[in-house]
Amino acid sequence: MLRKAARLIGVSLLGLAGVLIVVAAAGLGFRAYRQYLAAETLAIRAPNGVQEGAFVDIGGIKQWIQIRGEDRDNPVLLFVHGGPGGSSWPMSSGWRPWEKHFTIVQWDQRGAGRTYGAAGDSLAPTMTLERMTQDGVELAEYLRTHLHKQKIVLVGHSWGSFLGIHIVKQRPDLFYAYVGTGQVVGRVTFEKSFELAITHLQELAQSAGNSEALAELAPIAARPLMNPQNRLVADRWSKALALPSIESFQLAGPIPPPFMPDFSLPDWYYWRKGMAFSAKYLRGREGPMFKRDVASLGLAFPIPVIFIEGDADYNTPGEPAQQLFNQITAPHKEFVRVHGGHFIPFDRPDEFLAELVAHVRPFAGN
User: Which pLDDT does position 275 carry in this prediction?
Assistant: First the structure.
C-alpha cells in the first residue's frame, strides 16, 4: 500500500513538473514574441540613424551605453539616470519621439544595470561621487570622439541631476547646456520632501478620521526634523494611511520594461540588484546627497542651465531647486515648471520633449 501511494505521489510530482515546464516554456515564448514585436516598433531605419549598444572602457571598467537617434547630425543628449542605480533604458520606450530631435545616449552608471552585472560587488570600493563624476567626464569625452561632436547636452534626473551638476562643473567645456529635472540640491531637498510627506500624511489622517495618527504627526509637523524617531513615525503612518510610493507612477511608452528588446532575464535581475547595491553606497544619511551641497561647487556656470521641474514633485520638491536657481549665474538660465511629479521624463515624455526642443535645442550645435 505504501509503495503504491509513493508511486502515485511520484507520478503526480512528475506530472506537476511537466505542467510547470510547459507553462514556463509558454511564458518564455510569449516574452520572446513580445520582444520581437517591440524590436520592430523601436527599430531605427533612417539612413543616417544610429542604434548601438555596447560596453565601453570608462573609469577602468566596462560600462554599458546605448546610443539611438534618427539622424547622426542631431545634437547628442546624454541622459544621466537617477536611483541611484536606476538604469533608465528599460523604461525608455516613450522616448522614441525624442530620437527625431536628438541622439539619445543612456548610460548604466557604475553599480547599475549591465555595468553592475559585468563587475558585480567588486565595484564597492569605487562607489564614490568623485569616481562617478570622473566616469561622466570620460564618457562625455568618448561620445565627442565616437559621434564626432564638439560638445553634448547633459540631462540629469534625480540622483542623476546631483551627479550631473558635478560632471558639468568639472568640465563645462564638454557641454552645450545642463538640464536638471527632479533636481537634487543636497540635504535641503530631502528635508523639504519630508516636510511635504508629513503634511500629506496629516491630510490622509484627517480624511480617515484617524485621531491617533493626527496626534502623533502634529508635533512632527510643528518641527519636521528628519531624525530617526520622526522617520519611524512617518514610516509607520505612511504604510497605515497608504501614502503613495515614489514608484507609484504610470510609465508611458508602448513597451513595458520586461518586454524591451535585448533586455534579458539576467538583465532584469541585475537591474533590480544594481539599485539595491548602489543605494547602499550612495543613498541615506551617509550618502553624498545628504553630506554634500550643490551650491558648494560654486554658483557661476559658464554654460546655459535649464531646470524642468514637475509642479507636483514631492520626492525632490521644486522649492530648493528654485532657490538654487535664483542664486546661480549663467549665460542663459530658465526654470520651467510642467504639470507632473518626479518622473516626468518617463510618464510625460512628450511634454518633456517639447520643453527640450523649446528651451535646450537652440543652444545645442550639431
Answer: 95
